[in-house]
Design a protein that fits this description.
By secondary structure, this protein is mainly beta. It folds into 3 domains: 2-62, SH3 type barrels, CATH 2.30.30.30; 66-124, OB fold (Dihydrolipoamide Acetyltransferase, E2P) (Beta Barrel), CATH 2.40.50; 128-184, OB fold (Dihydrolipoamide Acetyltransferase, E2P). Helix content is 2%, strand content 54%. It starts with a strand and ends with a strand.
């Protein structure tokens, strides 16, 4: 058991049969009453977030999540297959377990797999991935002077706003946290 004072951003806890990860932590000292903590928690299985308040004296059960490095292999309908880089075991996850990470999966991508008691929970994407532009409008000479953006469809099927000088076939780096263009890959 861990005390409320030991909770920090990123810590995983077990609460009411679910596994949550702390995304925000606020300690609130009341004038006359006891101190409270306000937590923003993300359900690791369903990816839903909730805010809860607890007494500072409350105790929590830590959830020990195992991180393994895996490689994305392929998708087969509604299942996505990953291979453990150490023992070559394959693990299948559903689209719900992966969440928005589906938009950045391409064959051969190395990423993290979160497991809890040998049960696969979700994936952890690298902060940036390199994707090839498959569709975009052509850029014209002088377009970079305005600093504008245009939509570009990448190999995974999502559309990202890119600078005007990007053309079809270019490899770009995309931030997986917010889906924004970072830079043109060399």
């Amino acid at each position: 058991m861990i005390d409320a004072g030991e909770l920090r951003k990123g810590v995983a806890i077990e609460l009411e049969g679910k596994i949550y990860q702390v995304t925000e932590y606020h300690h609130i000292k009341m004038g006359r009453g006891s101190a409270q903590i306000r937590l923003r928690l993300r359900d690791i299985r369903s990816n839903n977030t909730t805010e809860r308040s607890f007494q500072a004296s409350d105790k929590f059960t830590p959830a020990f999540l195992e991180h393994r490095t895996v490689q994305y292999l392929y998708s087969d309908g509604s299942l996505y297959y990953f291979m453990d880089n150490k023992n070559y075991e394959q693990t299948a996850l559903t689209a719900d377990q992966i969440g928005g990470g589906i938009n950045y999966l391409k064959e051969g991508l190395n990423l993290g797999l979160l497991t809890y008691k040998d049960e696969p929970i979700s994936i952890e994407l690298p902060t940036a991935v390199e994707l090839q532009v498959t569709e975009t409008e052509p850029g014209f000479k002088g377009d970079t002077a305005t600093g504008g953006n245009k939509p570009a469809k990448v190999e995974t099927g999502i559309t990202i706003q890119v600078p005007l000088f990007i053309s079809v076939g270019d490899i770009i780096k995309v931030d997986t946290r917010n889906g924004e263009y970072l830079e043109k890959a060399s």
